[in-house]
Structures are given as C-alpha cells and as structure tokens.
User: Fold this.
Amino acid sequence: MKARILFVDDEANVLEGLRRSLRAYSETWELSFAGSAEEALGKLATIGFDTIVSDIWMPGKDGFTLLEEIRSQPRTQDIPVIILTGRQERDLKRRALDLGATDLLNKPIEREDLIARLRSTLRLKVYQDELRVQNAILDQKVWKRTQELAASRLEIVWCLGKAAEFRDEGTGNHIVRVGCYCRAIAEALGMPKDFVELLFLASPLHDIGKIGIPDHILLKPGKLTRQERQIMQTHCAIGARILREDSKTRMLFYAWQPRESDGLKKREYNPLLEMAANIALMHHERCDGTGYPQGLTTAAIPLEASIVALADVYDALCSERPYKRAYPESQALDIIRATVGRQFDPFAYSGFERALDMIRDIQAQFPDRMQSGCRKAAA
Assistant:
C-alpha cells in the first residue's frame, strides 16, 4: 500500500512545484494537495494520511490552527506533521514544536531535504501503527486474562461460601440469595459500583466460620443450650480469622519458593477479603449493642455488615428449616420492621424496602428444594 502524504499551502505554484519534484516517488507515495487548512481538514475527515506537510501562513485558518485541530482529534492526533517555516522565524518554530509538530523544514524547500524528512516521518508512522496494533493485541489479552481471573475469583468465593453450608443441605440456595439481596439493597441505596461489586462477592462468605462448629451443634434440630449457643456464636470470629490471618499452609508454601519471590510473602491488603472479614465478624451485631461477638452499636458496625445482617435474617425467616417453617412474607416483614433501629440499621433497611420487588424476583429465581421462598400472605 502506498504511503499517503498531504501537502497544505495556499500558493498553487508551491503545490505544483512539490508535485513535480516528487513525481519520481509516485510508485510508493500517494500525494494529495490542499490549498487551505479548511480543505485539508475536509480531506482528513475521510482519508487516512501517513504524513502532513503544511505551511504556516495561510488565509483563514493558519498552519498553527490546523496543527492544533489535527492533534485534538483521536483519529488524526498521531499523524506526523512537518511544518514549513522561514529561516529567521525562531519563535514560530518553537511554537510549532510546542503544538506538536514532528519536524520543521525551512523555506525555500530543498528537494533532498524534503525527501529525507518525509522518509523519516513515514518510518515513524509505520512504527506508531505497529505499536498501536501490538498495544491493541496486548490490551485484548490483558482484558481476556482479567475476565478469566475475575471469573475464577467469583467461582472461588462462591465455593468457599458454599463450603460453610455443605454439611447442612437444608440451607439450599441461601448464600446465592443473600449475595443477590445484598447487591440489590446496595444498588437501591445508591452505593458506588465498586462497593456493590465487593459486597456481592464478599457476602456469600458471611457464615464461612461455621466450618469450625461441631456437627452436633450446627445440625441440631432442636433449641440450643446456653453453652451450645455460645459455641455457635464463635463462628463469627472463626470466619474473620479464616479471611484475615495467614494460614500455616500459605507460610509453608512460601518457605520453598525462590528468593526472588520474597516480596510476595508479605500479605497485601485485599479489599475483598477485608470486607468479607468485616461481614463474617459483625453480621450478628445489633444497632442497640445487644448483638455478638463484640456488642457494637450502629456507628461502629460497617454498612456492609448491616446490609448482610438484614438480608441474612430476612432469608432465614422466609426459609424452611428442620427446626422451623417458612414464615409468610407479611409476617417476615413485620418481624423485621418491628426491630428497625434496635436490631437493623435504618439506612440499610431503607434500601431493603426500595429493593423489595427485586428481592422477590431473586427468591423466585433461586428457591430451595424444600420450599419456593417466602409464602405471601393471602389477600
């Protein structure tokens, strides 16, 4: 493909002289000519050029204005531009370079100088185009890899959340619904996209600490004793430790890694794990300070934990368990409304109310095998 070069000058005899002097290159260069900046911009709107050679002084828009407009448009901003200047126009040369001129050429134009400059700028354009293609390919690979990592992270998070319920099949799609409820509530509250995404990923891990609770307590169909209840409540702290603390396995893994990987041995701050740990630790706290494990009040409870607490209790009320029936929706809502301000954060509850229709859709989409979600009270 021929390299395309655009010459811009308001003097027709100058353009004709350029045409004649470069006739020998017609096999490799496709030459175009414009008698004004306006005409040049019109050509640039439809044709992709590899180099532009422009005079400065022209009626209407001058060469500086043309250069500014070329550099301001994404489609043309990388085209090399050679500006023609007089030998004594030092200030003009400096201004042209400041505006993004690629090269300068003195008038009157020497043919060999012009050819050398054109070859140089055309090589530059080839390199720029190759780099752009390579960057596009790299961006696509990075994007694809990022999507793969995001999908893997999502799968791992949901598998970890499911691990806490593996021994209790009666809970069914509980973690799926809670994650979706939390996303709906956060969106209804107008929370930032990053917060919503982290909450959606972290909320399924709220009961990960139940892995550490003995079966005879976790699966007990009847009422727990006071001592059993205290043991059950330790699942909050266990979950936080799982998500925050370094494991022995991790430390052993790095013990045999090459010295070059020493920088990886320090556990870096991870916003997803930090949010998940906060949720695991504090999703049973209450606004009035009577919750567990720390007895925190509203101001000390992170919003993410307050949202999960609400979603978790609502889903538990609406779900059938070996030790309880599923409450009708109206009864579950009455129970929650009666404790807003004491158990549940009023701000989180306001989002829950606004998201209620979406929450109903989620219940219908992800029912447990035991039941189809909250039973609506008869009209």
